[in-house]
Structures are given as C-alpha cells and as structure tokens.
Amino acid sequence: MKQVNIGLLGLGNIGTGTYKTLEMNREHIRRKTGLDFNIARILEKDVDRDRGISVSKDIFTQNPDDIWNDPNIDIVVELLGGVEPATTFMLDALGHGKHVVTANKAAVAANYEALTEAAAKNNVMFRFEASVGGGIPILNALTTALLANEYEEIMGILNGTTNYILTKMTEEDLPYADALKEAQAKGFAEADPTADVEGEDVANKLSILMSLIFGKRVLPADIPTTGITQITKADIESAAADDCVIKLIAAAFKRGDEVTYFIQPTLLNKDHPLASVGNEFNAIFVRGNAVDDLMFYGKGAGPLPTGSAVMGDVIEIGRAIAKGAAFD
Ligand code: HSE
What we know:
Strand order of the largest sheet: 3-2-1-4-5-6
Oligomer: single chain
Distance between the termini: 25 Å
CATH class of the largest domain: Alpha Beta
Mean pLDDT: 96
Shape: globular
Bound molecules: L-homoserine
C-alpha cells in the first residue's frame, strides 16, 4: 500500500485532535483510499506532555529543516497557530515542494496571496478547510460543489468560543469568566482568547471567506468588528424579555461591485434559524445566484471536529498524489 508521509508542525490541541482522528480511523481511511497516511515527523518542543496518544519520541524534532529536507515527507500540516513563524514555515515548506495543509486562520487571512501564489509557483496544493468553521466543510463546498454560483451573501456564527460563552450565559446564567474558562478547558479557545472574545478570530475567517467567494481581499483589521466583551447579564436578560437572543454575527453582502461587511453582537428573534445554534456549534448561511439559500451547521471548534477537517484536506492531497495529478 502506498504510504503518504506527513510532517506535523505543532502537537497542541488541534495537532492532537488530528493525530487522534487518524489513529481512530486509520483502517477505515486505508480501506476507502488505498493509502496509508503516516505522521512521520513532528515539530514540537513539548515532548513529554501526556496527550492521551501514543507517539514515538523518535519522530519529534525541534528543527523545521528536518521536515523540509526529508524527501519522504509529502505533506506538511501546520497547526502552530499565529501568523509567525507559521507563515514563514509554510512558505519554506511550499518552496521545498511540499503540499501544505493548515488550520491557521490568522496566517491565511494575513498572507493569503503569498501562500496561494507560493503553492501555484511550486506546483503543490495548499488547503485550509479547518481554518473556517471547524468541522464544517464550508470551504470545500464553496469552492467545488457550489462553483457554478456567483455568491451574493454570506453570514453566520463563526466562532465556537464566543457562541459557547453566550449560550452558557443565556441558558445557564453562568458568569462570562466561568463560561470562558469552560471553553478554554474544552479546547475551543485560541491560545490567547482575546482573539475570540474581541472578534479578531471571526475577522480572520470572514476575510478568508470574502477572498474565496467574492475574490475580494479585505484584511481582518479593516473589517468593522465588535466582540462580546461588553455584553452584560442585563443585555442578555433584556434580549430574553423581548423573545430574542444575542449572537456574534459575521456578514458580508455583495451588491453589484460593492461588498459590505461587519462583525457584531446582534439581537435575533428566538424563531430565527441562527438563534438555536448553541454552544461551540457554528452555522453559515450562504446565498448563491443559482442554488439560492443554503445553511451549513456543525461544530465550529474543538480538537476532533477540526482534526476531521485537517484530515479531509490531507486525504484529498494524498489521493491527488497517488493519481499523479497536476496540482492547483
Ligand atoms: N477559537 C476558535 C473558535 C477555534 O472558538 O471558534 C476554531 O476556529
């Protein structure tokens, strides 16, 4: 059976979730693809942490060159998070002819052109499904099954941590700080949860979505963004008194050549389809000019849902490698 070798950058929450997804479903993936996916090297400093997985210490390295220079490694999976050094590492990997998969929305949103151009120049694939919507295959759907459409609108709940906090504050009367702690303990939040609660994480995701569906580059910092830090118990109670809930909504609309975009806490009537999207779930509403309205729903954060999306990209690339495909 042909082996596809992976060099993993980072064995944190999402790295561990990806490792577990592969471990859990290895036989199933072999049967479905005829390929044996193997995590061959891991760039990670913390070798000793108990992650509930069995990894040979021999495959750890602290030198990224060990991964680029290993001719057996086909795909580099970047799960370090943060713009740097992740972007430099991905550009290095692409420059060495490695296919790259990432879940890193901050790096993709900041350096979309550089990364996609480096992949095209080196004739390798660059995939980032897990960067938006966690386990929801939204980028895949938008760029394959829905490719015949011109898009008019995209809106939704794009951050699991803030949705979890708002849900717990609304349904269980949990204080903000306790709900945030729970979201961190469950592996939903970013290393620095400020990015979640101030809306920066959603801005990264909306920026990526606009690049893909409208071909419009808007840097995350240029998206008018309000997070949830100012939402009080009183706001939630007053929303409930009006049969409403508060959700952090991201939206982008295209009218002619004009694109309007924003991220803000929004009052939704309890009957609204997004009002019942709770906890770490995300939901993304899209309107295409042929397909009309679509809604995608699923776990938007968490190690296994995100690991599922990462492995989906890895398997897509593995299959292309096995076919000897021309890459894009
Ligand atoms: N911190 C992010 C969230 C992780 O809570 O949605 C998934 O992108």
